[in-house]
Amino acid sequence: MGRETISEIEYFARALKAPRIRDAAARLAEQAREAGWTHEEYLAAVLSREVSARESSGAELRIRAAGFPGRKSLEEFNFDHQPSLKRDTIAHLGTGSFLTEAKNVVLLGPPGTGKTHLAIGLGIKAAHAGHRVLFATATDWVTRLQSAHQLGRLPQELVKLRRYGLIIVDEVGYIPFEQDAANLFFQLVSSRYEHASLILTSNLPFSRWGDVFGDHVVAAAMIDRIVHHADVITLKGSSYRLKNSGIDTLPSARPENTAE
Ligand SMILES: Nc1ncnc2c1ncn2[C@@H]1O[C@H](COP(=O)(O)OP(=O)(O)OP(=O)(O)O)[C@@H](O)[C@H]1O
Ligand SMILES: [Mg+2]
């Protein structure tokens, strides 16, 4: 292969953040010429090096197992739309040090302000840093805990969940829970307290969580544990979904009803 082509491949591999392609391209080209591979066979061999390296590093598997509703990265997040949010705060969380310290992150704010986006972005960083991650909505977590409870296996389930370095609970507040949900949730929070991290997102300020959980005493005890070691980030403004739509407010975005 010509020098120029090799350096072109090196450039493309860097741009794709695919170092194994860079390493394998020239070496496999030799092999391909000797063994008379087709172009397709050569391309497949090069790509397979990158894919198997990624899979064995496990990050990709952990990302797939996490159950994210979509892929969103911190790099894609537009901070210009969220001027009160410091890039440094998110960049620091992105290093994953909060996970090793078993700290929590709470993302509050009105609809469409990027809570789920940031939660997924942080989850993906966590997976890259080697942590197992599980993402679900608050409603789905309650269903999961309720089924374990009904089978008499709640303690075992909580132990199992503690093996995940990060659990993401999305959308606390959109759907109110029944009282046994408050108790189940409390057990999830207290079983992780000072052991493993949680990321929670909510459209409601903490003062309204008592209504959501239908139990002010349990909600207060739960919030106390969550925020003891936590970064609480409040996102503001209008929905990113409505950007360029000509609509500037949603009915639920009135300050008295939201976490803003
Ligand atoms: N600052 C931003 N930069 C880039 N994309 C953004 C930003 N904020 C939101 N988005 C995008 O807008 C959409 C809505 O954001 P997201 O789902 O994170 O909102 P949310 O705060 O979770 O809202 P909800 O409370 O309705 O669940 C997503 O596609 C997300 O990627
Ligand atoms: Mg959301």
TrEMBL record:
CDD domains (alphabetical): AAA
SUPFAM superfamilies noted in UniProt: P-loop containing nucleoside triphosphate hydrolases
Gene Ontology molecular-function annotations: ATP binding
Entry keyword set: ATP-binding, Nucleotide-binding
GO biological process: DNA replication
Domain called AAA+ ATPase: residue spans: 101-234
UniProt cross-references to SMART domains, sorted A to Z: AAA
Lineage top rank: taxon: Bacteria
UniProt record similarity statement: Belongs to the IS21/IS1162 putative ATP-binding protein family.
Listed NCBIfam families: IS21_help_AAA, PRK06526.1
UniProt-recorded name of the protein: AAA family ATPase
Organism: Cryobacterium cheniae
